[in-house]
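Here is a typical protein record:
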Amino acid sequence: MTILVTGATGNIGRRVVDGLVGAGQRVRAMVRDPRAAHLPDGVELVRGDFERPETWPDVLDGVERLYLFPFAYHVPESADLGFVERASAAGVRRFVVHSAAAAGFAPSDDPSALGRHLEEERAAHRGLELMVEATGKEWTHVRPGLLAVNALGWAERIRTERTVREPYGRSGYPLVHEADVAEVAVAALLTDDHLGAAYTITGPAKVTQTEQAAAIGAAIGADVRFEELTPAQARAQWLADGCPPDVADWLIELLADALDGPGALPPTGTYEELTGRPPRAFTRWARDHAADFMEVA
């Protein structure tokens, strides 16, 4: 049996590849540049791109199960069918969809920047889920909440200044370790226990931005200072760093939404229900990624 992993060089995709290889499976990875993939020995690397339909036949040949990265919801104008439909026609009989927690939200006409963003995210991810369901093949949707790896956006400033500068230090979400998401995805690919299920995976509890900075400091053995900015100061800094204005607007609203309580995404007990273990905490994530925050020798 050949299992195809798309998005195989991403934070979660790499973990999915590792889990499948560890389980002794035959793994194929769709990658844009095989020379730069740096995946485990034994993984079949096939050049492919969701934007290039001419690459899809080689990618999909002989594949029975598929870990589907969300960019598949875009159908290039040059394609007669989308990637999902082509995969189904090629013989894929099980899809495990890398979706998002927003796919489980109710449709909304909230006109705020955050409301518009969440509705766009909901529509895109739920749209991909519906494409997969329409094939009539086996499916499982894995819907991670906000990922702890977003904290890597602080890495350069922590390495050089030992400082995090953000608004709303008390704001936070139950950030999920990418390993937890990948573990659920691998189980869905390899067993029949999760067919037809949609799982929203979060971390164990809300972790504020100040707590995140402290955890990273503890992981690297340094004092990482949290400097609280006003929303206006943060927006100006993000724009100077190249962040699009609309993204800066909804990010500020996202943080403001979780000042008191978990905001739009409270913790779920899904991971523990599925595995019998609590989700990995942010402190564990910080230890696992300590090297990313260390000064380069």
